Amino acid sequence: MQQLTLTTERLLLRAFESADAHQVQRLAGNADVSSTTANIPHPYPDGLAEKWISTHGENFANQSRVTYAICLKENGELIGCISLIHLSSEHPELGYWLGVEHWGRGYCTEACREMIKFCIERFSLKAIYGKHLSRNPASGHVMEKCGLTYIGSDTGKDGFMLVPEEFRIYRMLCE
């Protein structure tokens, strides 16, 4: 099963390619991007983007995760990432990041709406979850604009976090 390219008014959501690794490292490696997530290390190590991209095909094929490069439709520039992980669980989770120079333009909301629509149709999901660090309220605004509702908070460690932090948790029922 091949990963489809998704199109919105201003964006293309496509499978990552190995040639994207340098741009991923540059964008995600920005300290401001890393500070908004639990799963992006700073500094971003050489070789990590290549390793990460190499997992996408198998993850899509076994329907455990779908990951898309967020690209500008007008010129194909890679500006970020959106994914839905834990697809086969009761709590599939939406995640995303954008390069700092693309913040505040509605790209994340546009990409999330398309990703949610695609995943509900393709994977027959009953619910979609999302979470963000409490110190990153902009991510919560994106989730709310896309139909997810705040359901509570939790404190813990995730990804590359060194100390526990509070997460705000959201959910959308799809049935």
Task: Report what the structure shows.
It is a single chain. With 175 residues, the protein is an alpha+beta fold. The protein has one domain: Gcn5-related N-acetyltransferase (GNAT) (Aminopeptidase, 3-Layer(aba) Sandwich). The protein has helices spanning 21-28, 31-34, 48-54, 56-61, 107-123, 137-145; strands at 6-7, 11-14, 65-72, 78-85, 93-98, 127-133, 149-156, 165-173. Strands 1-2-3-4-5-6-8-7 form an eight-stranded mixed β-sheet, with helices on both faces. α1 (21-28) crosses α3. It is globular. The model has no long low-confidence stretch (mean pLDDT 93).
How much helical structure, as a percent, in the residues?
25-40%
Q: How many strand segments? A: 8
Low-confidence stretches: none
The CATH homologous superfamily is called Gcn5-related N-acetyltransferase (GNAT)
CATH topology: Aminopeptidase
CATH architecture descriptor name: 3-Layer(aba) Sandwich
Present the secondary structure layout.
Elements: E1 6-7, E2 11-14, H1 21-28, H2 31-34, H3 48-54, H4 56-61, E3 65-72, E4 78-85, E5 93-98, H5 107-123, E6 127-133, H6 137-145, E7 149-156, E8 165-173
Parallel strand pairs: 5-6
Antiparallel strand pairs: 1-2, 2-3, 3-4, 4-5, 6-8, 7-8
